[in-house]
Amino acid sequence: MNPTGIVVPVAAACAYIGYRLFLRYRPNLRREWTYYREKIQAWLTGRKSGLSLLWFSTTANQYRDGMPLHHASAWKYMTNEQWRSFVQNSIAYMEPPIGPQDSVFEVGCGVGAFSKTIEELTGCTDFAGIDPVPEAISLAQKVFPSKRFLVGNGLDLSDFADNGFDHVLAAGVIMYLDSLDEAGRFVSEMLRIAKPGASLMINCVSEPGGRNLGSGNIYIPKEWWMRAVGGHVITSFREMGEWPGCEKQRGRYSVYLRKSNIADNGCGQGRGN
Question: Does pTM top 0.70 for this prediction?
Answer without folding.
Answer: yes
